[in-house]
Design goal:
The protein is an alpha+beta fold. It contains three helices and three strands, in the order αββααβ. The termini are far apart.
Amino acid sequence: MSKQALKRVRKTLGLPVCREPLPAFAWPGGYPLFYLFAADSMICCPACANAHITDIDADRAHTHGQWTLAGHDVNWEDTSLICDHCGKAIESAYGN
């Protein structure tokens, strides 16, 4: 995982610029996060986003590249939200 790629992607997403992986939980509060791709509005879990950080970094200058992230958000109540890349459920903050 490229530390410089992490810094660039975090800056693009408006997250604190550092070499840490993309967060899985919002701070403060610890609410579960997900990432959204710009081209097709697909959902990505933090683990998949971090696993493909070099692809995301390479596409960050494109408006609708395959790996361009549009942003991130908290999964407040959607108990059926899944990662479109790996198929795992993304935890919800207040659902069931």
